[in-house]
Design brief:
Layout lengths: L1 H33 L5 H12 L15 E2 L2 E2 L29 H7 L15 E7 L2 E7 L8 E5 L3 E2 L2 E2 H13 L3 H10 L7 H38 L4 E9 L12 E8 L5 E8 L3 H9 L19 H15 L4 E6 L3 H10 L5 E5 H16 L7 H17 L4 H11 L37 H15 L2 H4 L2 E2 L2 H13 L11 H15 L3 H9 L5 H21 L2 H12 L2
Parallel strand pairs: 8-11, 11-12, 12-13
Antiparallel strand pairs: 1-2, 3-4, 4-5, 6-7, 8-9, 9-10
Helix pairs in contact: 4-6, 6-16, 6-17, 8-9, 10-11, 11-12, 12-13, 15-16
Length: 569
Amino acid sequence: MTRWKRQGFSKQNNKYTKNSEVLKSRWKCVLEDHNYSHSQANRHLSDTINNEETSSEQVPPVHVPHTFNDREVPDTAGCNVFVHSDSGYDSSWREGRRVVELGVLADGLSGCKQCGLPLQLSHTQGIRDCGLGSFLQVRCRNLWCGHVNVIPTGKRHGRIWDANTKLATGMIHTGIGPAQVNDLLTSLNIPAVSTKTIQNRQTETGLAIEKVAEDTIHQVLQDEIQATVETEGTEELTVSVDAGWQKRGSGHSFDSLSGHCSMIGEHTGKIIGYEVRSKTCRICESAKRSGKEAKEHDCRQNWQGSSKSMEPSMVISMVEKKLDKGVKVSTVIADDDTTTISRLKKSVNPDIKKKCDKNHIRKNFSSSLYALQKKHKSLSSKVIRYLQKCFNYLLAQNQGNPKGIEKALDALCNHPFGNHESCSDSWCQHVNNPKQRYTSLPYGKPLKDSALQDSLHSLCNQWKQNSCKISSLGSTQPNESFNRTVSLKAPKNHYFSSSASLNYRVAASVAEKNSGASYLVAVNKKIGLSPGRFTRKLCYLRESQTRKRKAIAKTKEAKRRRRELKARR
């Protein structure tokens, strides 16, 4: 024993004493800086350390980091943290903003997984972003535990974060793309989401949107059949069809790479069928350029012909699908293009009938008037608007009455010039009061240009030859409204034609047209997610606003206001 003391036992004892003092000072600093002494055991340890000042050598307090698994406990600032570079976690967790579900975070911080002691957010050592979701590394404050807990900031279904799926749903609903999503997030100082993550979640929610759209179509089809039976006593449907393209047309060139078409029931005004055509596929073209075989993917390329021939093909496809389900389409409302109806009669049903769209008829009549304006200076814009209004009235009042159309056209070319022999006292006040002023003509007086009257007479005679046609008109206005919705979800200044994103956005437009903004609730349920209180609240608010807007638009005051605003243009 003497030999061991002589060879250095006392030296090792001094070293042990010095290290003990360093350890005590380290524990004291941690306890003071971080207030870890909340439990009874920690308070007892603190009292023991503070009273054991027995060392003969005074060692200055030194703040030595206490390491567990090569990760340091945060200092008082909470941000100087060392984390392995290959762990995927970032130490700068205090920077920027995050999307956090407070309930999930509170449950995660409620207790350590090892000792059950409550955790503190300020003890976070690192963060790992997974799109809008994140994992936090939070160290337990218990000195004997020191376990690093991994706390999620949101809900997940499987390995997929709910927030990322709902982000993709919102992206489709609002009509923006991954670039616009990241522009919005980074402007809020939220970390950007990788394009691959957004595209994967877009596929997930897009397939659900397409299923919801098909469900709404099935329900609307049954309602349309029932309304047709109650109104007309037959199950043969009358539908309106119209196509739209994802490129702004000049009227001379038709070279869009994709197009869509909708079929809307006459009685319900909702979509009972839709089609999408696309000439390109991004993945297929990329593989072709590189000389490789394309990987397995959801290819939506289904057209090789011209863009103009997309519409007849889509209409024929929709009518045939209805026949496969046992539903017969007897009448189609479309524009003046004769290609569609001729191919329908040739390929599907030779007895199918066509109704012209009244909006296209009005536009054709207006174009004829503006063509006459080049020859007659007295035909001002104010006079043209008056003649347009009279033409709209005669169409609305004589549907199903070709003779009434012919008589009204005779009155149209005479009434503005003070000749009321063909007028009816039901709409012309000059029959009973010849001195009545013209409220919509210049100076309140009738026109006196005989050359203009002859031209109008010739124009009305041409329209009289089609009196049967224009006495039975339909409307494609619901289809035009649907095309506008598609243009909001798939803007023409963005390119979605070479992927399934276009199909998802058209399907979202269909679901919104049929069931309103609450289709988002159905999409979330289809995926298996909770729609959430705020999503439901805003959806119901939007639907209430839409119903109110439609009711106001049908009032006389609103129609009069629209005419006044249109006259100011």
